[in-house]
Design brief:
Number of domains: 2
Mean pLDDT: 79
Number of strands: 0
Number of helices: 10
Order of helices and strands: HHHHHHHHHH
CATH class of the largest domain: Mainly Alpha
Distance between the termini: 54 Å
Low-confidence stretches: 98-105, 187-192
Helix content: over 70%
CATH superfamily of the largest domain: RNA polymerase sigma factor, region 2, helix turn helix motif
CATH architecture of the largest domain: Orthogonal Bundle
Radius of gyration: 19 Å
Structural class: mainly alpha
Length: 192
């Protein structure tokens, strides 16, 4: 019975948030802060940065709460916002610090240098980052942790609760998909 009351209470506070009720916003914040902090902690070891990510994420949650339709888990909906906020924060910090050597480093990691030489087409860092934005959340998470946070596949596996092999596989697939997006190969090609 307590579980049903909790679910009912959650629905009431979601409606309160939709109406701009500060007490409902505080209730949601208090109830989910630690969990969302843990989500963002997967993307940075710096707790100050993580706190900023969580604060920004909650601002987005409350700003976009009308978009939550109650069809799925509220927690899952918030997690997606937090993950996207964390990734955006990583991209922004990295983009602010990029110089020519970083451009080359990112191109090597994505593996587009050889194709650029063959096609004569060069990509900006922003184009590569925009292509990364189109990846699935799991590929994007591994890609960001490996490229931007310099995590090893062992560390990524521990952070995301996956195997080292899955981390390596997701990274390879993410690189392949980024290259397909960059070179306009939207159709996925499957080996027969």
């Amino acid at each position: 019975m307590a579980e049903a009351m909790s679910e009912n209470e959650l629905r009431q506070h979601i409606e309160g948030c939709k109406n701009g009720n500060r007490l409902s916003q505080q209730w949601v914040f208090d109830r989910y802060y630690r969990l969302m902090f843990g989500v963002c902690l997967r993307y940075s070891k710096d707790t100050d940065r993580v706190q900023d990510m969580v604060q920004e994420g909650f601002l987005k949650v409350f700003t976009n709460i009308e978009g939550y339709t109650s069809k799925g888990s509220f927690e899952g909906w918030m997690r997606r916002i937090m993950v996207n906020t964390a990734i955006d924060a990583i991209r922004k910090v990295k983009a602010d610090r990029m110089d020519a050597t970083d451009d080359e480093h990112l191109e090597v990691l994505v593996g587009v240098q050889e194709e650029e030489e063959e096609t004569g087409r060069e990509f900006t860092v922003q184009e590569i980052l925009d292509a990364m934005e189109q990846l699935s959340p799991s590929y994007r998470a591994v890609f960001n942790l490996y490229v931007f946070d310099n995590y090893s596949h062992q560390e990524i596996a521990e952070q995301l609760g996956i195997s080292v092999g899955a981390s390596k596989s997701n990274f390879a697939k993410a690189k392949r998909n980024v290259k397909r997006i960059l070179f306009g190969e939207n159709e996925l090609k499957f080996a027969k």
